[in-house]
Amino acid sequence: QAIIIGVKKGGTRALLEFLRVHPDVRALGAEPHFFDRCYDKGLPWYRNLMPRTLEGQITMEKTPSYFVTKEAPKRIYNMSRDTKLIVVVRNPVTRAISDYTQTLSKNPTIPSFQALAFKNISTGLIDTTWSAVRIGIYAKHLDSWLQYFPLSKFLFVSGERLVSDPAGEMGRVQDFLGLKRVVTDKHFYFNETKGFPCLKKPEGSSRPRCLGKSKGRPHPKIDGQVVQRLQEFYRPFNMKFYQMTGQDFGWD
């Protein structure tokens, strides 16, 4: 009934984990990548991965790469045009740096952020073929989704607010999914060391639970001018995205 379709490094894991506290949500933990990488395995394969649900419960999954996959909107539409789509977005500059940080942690020999972000550093020409940059052009990706789904089928969640006000943002998500507001501020506490909200007591466990070690990694220091140039690059796309969604995310 619902899919978190993106975006990578936006806060999709946090959203999924916060939602799983809700008794009426059954979510697949791992990313199935059905509508981008495994589509030829067929719908029965995909359905089979899903957790068993009772009448009235919502089955969901998250695969952040769906948002930027050309074929995904049509494929999801062909499965069910009633699917609710959730997009978690955050400042595209921070998102790009976070994306780079993740790659760097897996492969320490990659070129610098600056070298990858620019086609030509002296002219300040941004390399939009680099996925870390391309993913953040949200307006462009949303365009292809709106060819299949009306805006009413989307909820755009602020990755920043998911950190600063998890209960408030979760309220919006539960309303959108037609759920009772069960996940509230009593479920969260702020973990000072990680700089992230954590769940106080996930269902059936007495221990508070925070997101894994890979979340909240310290970002490498990026030159201020590089950041500024990227902000300028994204600004028109951000404005377009605000217009399309009717939401100002305050990144500018």
Structure description:
This protein is an alpha/beta fold. The protein has a single domain (2-245), classed as P-loop containing nucleotide triphosphate hydrolases (Rossmann fold), CATH 3.40.50. It is 38% helix and 15% strand. It is built from ten helices and nine strands. The strands form three sheets. It has a five-stranded parallel β-sheet. It has a two-stranded antiparallel ribbon with strand order 5-6. A two-stranded antiparallel sheet has the order 8-9. α7 (138-146) packs parallel to α10 (224-245). The longest helix is centred in the last third of the chain and has 22 residues, at 224-245. The mean pLDDT is 93.
Structural class: alpha/beta
Give the overall shape, derived from the CA principal axes. globular
Strand order of the largest sheet: 2-3-1-4-7
In total, how many beta strands?
A: 9
Cα radius of gyration in angstroms = 18 Å
**CATH domain topology:** Rossmann fold
Tell me the number of structural domains. Answer: 1
Give the overall pLDDT as a whole number: 93
Oligomer category: single chain
Set out the fold topology.
Blueprint lengths: L1 E5 L5 H8 L5 E3 L15 H7 L8 E5 L9 H8 L4 E6 L2 H15 L6 H5 E3 L4 E2 L4 H4 L3 H9 L7 E5 H6 L1 H11 L11 E4 L4 E4 L24 H22 L7
Helix pairs in contact: 7-10
